[in-house]
Please model this.
Amino acid sequence: MSEIITIANQKGGVGKTTTAVNLAASLALENRKVLIIDADPQANATTSLGYSRNDYEYNIYHVMIGTKKLSEIILKTGVDNLYLAPSNIGLVGVEKEFYNSKAKQRELVLKEKLDEIKNDFDFVIIDSPPALGPMTINALSAANSVIIPIQCEFFALEGLAQLLNTIRLIRKTINPKLSIKGFLPTMYSKQNNLSKQVFADLSHHFRNKLFKDEGNSSFIVIPRNVKLAESPSFGKPVVLYDSKSSGSMAYQSLAKVILGR
Ligand SMILES: Nc1ncnc2c1ncn2[C@@H]1O[C@H](COP(=O)(O)OP(=O)(O)OP(=O)(O)O)[C@@H](O)[C@H]1O
Ligand SMILES: [Mg+2]
Model:
């Protein structure tokens, strides 16, 4: 059965998509079969994996509204073992329809769709939009765990209480098994005192929820690395673009920690 991990933070631009794509690719490189679900209407994960809007007809929107099965929209990627359920700006429609509908259990639509393919993948990684709206709630309701990227910049922890409350509420009501897999400091700069401060704050509050690299007994932080920012424009995860870059190595270490090694 798949382990389902949602990457979430309602704050924009903190490294959710970068984490989803590169963690998924790194797990695939470790010979795990991985599906990345782009649950964001911005479709950045889809683009990062080299697809543009005219390359595919159906996307996660059609799955959410029930016109297609999840298995029918899945695309191959340039990485062996890595598959993509693409998104499209049309997914905004789902958010509207959800707000207007009075349907019960509308938080559980994605989970239901995932049940269908849960024996086909080792991991499902869900990239969520920068909001605590219906798609994020669906993504959290479907997941075993959540990874929360925290950008090592000013205001990093702002809004975190709201996210943690939402997770608590989902755990209490629809998904008791949802756990916080960890907080992932992103865009860390060694030279920057603010980065150090954010990391210190995080380890003060959530020390046991940082990812620990047992190999060298340090915590995993994703460095600010230009290769991570460039690789989406080539439609490739960083492991294919520059596997020895600091950003690539960090995501490969994260994958190893998640695999328990
Ligand atoms: N470690 C990093 N080093 C350098 N640039 C990065 C790093 N992580 C992310 N970026 C860049 O920062 C920007 C925001 O990252 P990303 O798209 O992953 O954030 P996001 O949380 O998914 O954003 P959104 O909330 O809009 O979905 C992108 O241009 C990305 O390439
Ligand atoms: Mg994103």
Q: What stands out?
A: Residues 16-17, 40, 44, 127 surround magnesium ion (ligand 2) (CB under 6 Å). Residues 16-29 form the longest helix (14 residues). The first strand starts at residue 3 and ends at 7. Residues 1 and 119 are 5 Å apart (CA to CA).
